[in-house]
Write a structure and sequence with these properties.
With about 625 residues, this protein is an alpha/beta fold. It has 3 domains: about 15-260, EAL domain (TIM Barrel), CATH 3.20.20.450; about 285-415, CBS-domain; about 420-620, Alpha-Beta Plaits (2-Layer Sandwich). It contains 28 helices and 21 strands. An 8-stranded mixed β-barrel has the order 1-2-3-4-5-6-7-8, surrounded by 6 helices. Helix 5 (about 100-105) packs across helix 7 and helix 22 crosses helix 23. The longest helix is centred in the last third of the chain and has 25 residues, at about 600-620. The chain is flat. It starts with a helix and ends with a helix.
Length: about 625
Amino acid sequence: MSLSPSSQLGQPSVAQLIARRTLNAVFQPIVDFDGGTILGYEGLIRGPAGSPLESPGALFAQAAREGLSVALEHAAARRCIDAFASLGCEGKLFLNFSAEALVALGETRERTIAWLQRRGLGVERIVLELTEQCAIADVAAFAPAVNALRETGIQFALDDYGTANASMNLWVRLQPDVVKIDRFFIHDIANDPLKFEAVRAMQHFAGASGARLVAEGIENAADLIVVRDMGIALGQGFFIGRPATQASREFTQGARDALGAGHIAVFPGATRTPVAASPSGGMAAAKMIVTAPALPMSATNNDVLELFNRLPTLHAVAIVENERPVALINRRSFMDRYALPYHRELFGKRPCMLFANASPVIIEKSMTVEQMAKLLASDDQRYLADGFVITDEERYVGLGTGESLVRAVTEVRIEAARYANPLTFLPGNIPISSHIARLVEHRAGFYACYVDLNHFKPFNDRYGYWQGDEVLKFAAAVLADVCDPTRDFLGHVGGDDFLVLFQSDDWAERVARALRAFDTGALRFYADEDRAAGGIHGEDRRGNPSFFSFVTMAIGCVRVTPRARHQVHYGSEEIASVAALAKHRAKKEASGFFVIDLEEGAAQLHLHEAAGTARLQHASVLD
């Protein structure tokens, strides 16, 4: 009789641990965010305390060496159920199973149900988690085993979704009741835009499939608040509660504080280039295609002339060989040449390549506007006059014009700027409005601070736009430095206008710090002689000579209290308008700072609007 490796080392084998019932069960709480209650517990197994097999990794590795993996999974489930029942825990019990162990469990489901009933545990309280230990060779054959177990009232969960073998394929084929998002995607989600977007995609699919999501691996308050505000229903992790033999009836105080936090999360924003982030940033070349016939390399100049005469709006013609473009002939330059005396007689029967551009600008149909925009900055500007060739996998599909390229790049950049400012990469007007709407919807108290730079235009006129951009980037850095990225939202409205939505309790101190830091730091952008003079000479907006002091920051704040939100509904546009009004007041203050309550500011705004309407009506009467 051969001994297992563990027995040879003087420690019990997994078979002996199962037979002696020396496995220990621990339970980790799973919290329902909406109700702030414990939905249930995940049952986990440990080897004898203090032994080399105490950790689950070592325990299951040894079971694999002994060929007892399925036997250990079943023994672990029985031990967890026994302990759970004896503790008198309420809620659901989540149990881990590999695909092989689930199939074996399905074959004995009647005995399993009877065994559960004897322990006073209803099948509706059991959730079987399919772990990602190994790939499922035949999902179609595995699905009936899962369905047979679910017919008994047991629920089914897909564990560790997003890694290893927990794939979209399994989600679609098995249609689980619960999907547990792997901890990789949840850890640091408060600061990682890509993880946030990945989980958002999972959330959309969960809504379509009817599955409930569990965010695993929550280890800090910031991640918990982001997950909470995304609308994910359930969560699990060390920050909520660690696995314990005595299943805790309450989750941690830190998690309770985070769930009850009055502020809402600032979702992490991508800092990619705005065109790439724009919803219309890709496949733009396809929209610019001018369908046009092409000519083969064997064509003559007379063939080109005949084509241009037949199609008077055609700006160019592509020359192709085996469907691939090799040259481009511009209409205007070709026709100008042919207008010269005797050119048709001399060159009409000559090959068309004689007057062709043998190195045309070629744009692939799938190219993004960001890639095409590089042409605008290149030294080769022939496309502006000649146009360019558009291909699909290197095969000719049509032509494009320089005008259409400039227009497409401009339109996409304007649209992209609404999402992210192209200079600072800060969120633009659409994300700003969206975040204000979230704050309003959640009835959160916050301070909307409109930021403007005094004397910025004279600085731009004196030092140029390049230096002006450096000042704007410095202002963005100063504001970002005083913001808590998990509570305070910073956006770039445009030009020298920014908007900060503070939820930090010490918002006033942060505002003061920003004013000091910018006003002091901006001096370095001036020449020594201008610093010595205390400013610069220039022209005001009416063209009159004036002297302007240094660029400084002005911040007008609107106080939006939860109490006010219950009384009157204000939209994002009105809040932003009142903040702009406060900014104008701040520019007149020596401190550069002014604060006003939302209701008071809204009333003043309405008075100004009414006065403006009255002036227009009066003017119409006089006319």
